[in-house]
């Protein structure tokens, strides 16, 4: 192990970030800045490399349960709390940017927004994006929790919520915690029911998007709406 203080200044993660910017750093170097210190036998960068190796991806490390996270060498409750705060701040920052620029006129713009909101949730939720006549976001809202089917999603409640929020159009969305984004027959059925109900009050359903893992499926792109 070589202490970080023995490395040339330009190779130390903090100094490298100040000199070259955060994008110049590797995942391990960025994680080392978060860790701050190493453990006996490993400096902070070596510990970061070790953690990335045993977790395979940043996603696995960041989505570990508190118990799984704290059980790993060099980590603990304090680091877990710090990481959750950093992740939540990042999520809120990205959502703030999305809200500021939120004109949902393409599937990709919706994907980006919903990925931040729904990816990583362990429970299936049904969300509605309420849009004005310019396709700008008025509000997003989770209306239902649990497996999406005709018994758990009530068209009357969706219509009431859309009218309450003065929406001109809606985008429906839900997640598949399994990571498989393909729509089920129940997804297709409830989408048709919601379209029919909302058409009676002149509110368009622009899309229904399923978020599963790293993938999103758009009903509009599939020709299902």
Automatic annotation (TrEMBL):
PROSITE patterns per record: MPN, UPF0758
Q: Which UniProt keywords apply?
A: Hydrolase, Metal-binding, Metalloprotease, Protease, Zinc
Q: In terms of domain of life, where is this protein from?
A: Bacteria
Instruction: Tell me the ranges covered by the MPN domain, including all copies.
Output: 103-225
Q: Establish whether keyword Protease is in the entry.
A: yes
Instruction: Give the InterPro entries listed for this entry.
Output: MPN, RadC_JAB, RuvA_2-like, UPF0758, UPF0758_CS, UPF0758_N
Any Pfam family matching the protein: UPF0758_N
Family of this protein? Belongs to the UPF0758 family.
PANTHER family the record matches: DNA REPAIR PROTEIN RADC, UPF0758 PROTEIN YEES-RELATED
* Protein name as it appears in the record: DNA replication and repair protein RadC
What organism does the UniProt record list as the source?
Pseudoalteromonas lipolytica
């Amino acid at each position: 192990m070589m202490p970080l203080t023995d490395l040339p200044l330009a190779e130390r993660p903090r100094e490298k970030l100040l000199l070259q910017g955060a994008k110049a750093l590797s995942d391990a170097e960025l994680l080392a800045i978060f860790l701050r210190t190493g453990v006996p036998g490993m400096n902070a960068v070596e510990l970061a490399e070790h953690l990335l190796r045993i977790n395979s991806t940043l996603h696995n490390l960041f989505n570990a349960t508190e118990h799984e996270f704290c059980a790993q060498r060099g980590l603990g409750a304090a680091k877990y709390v710090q990481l959750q705060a950093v992740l939540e701040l990042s999520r809120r920052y990205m959502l703030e940017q999305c809200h500021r620029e939120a004109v949902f006129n393409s599937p990709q713009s919706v994907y980006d927004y919903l990925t931040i909101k729904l990816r990583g949730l362990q429970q299936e939720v049904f969300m509605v994006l309420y849009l004005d006549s310019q396709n700008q976001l008025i509000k997003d809202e989770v209306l239902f929790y649990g497996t999406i089917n005709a018994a758990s999603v009530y068209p009357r409640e969706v219509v009431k919520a859309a009218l309450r929020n003065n929406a001109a159009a809606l985008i429906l969305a839900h997640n598949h915690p399994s990571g498989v984004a393909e729509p089920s027959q129940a997804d297709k059925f409830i989408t048709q029911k919601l379209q029919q109900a909302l058409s009676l009050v002149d509110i368009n359903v622009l899309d229904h998007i399923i978020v599963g893992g790293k993938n999103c499926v758009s009903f509009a792109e599939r020709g299902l709406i």
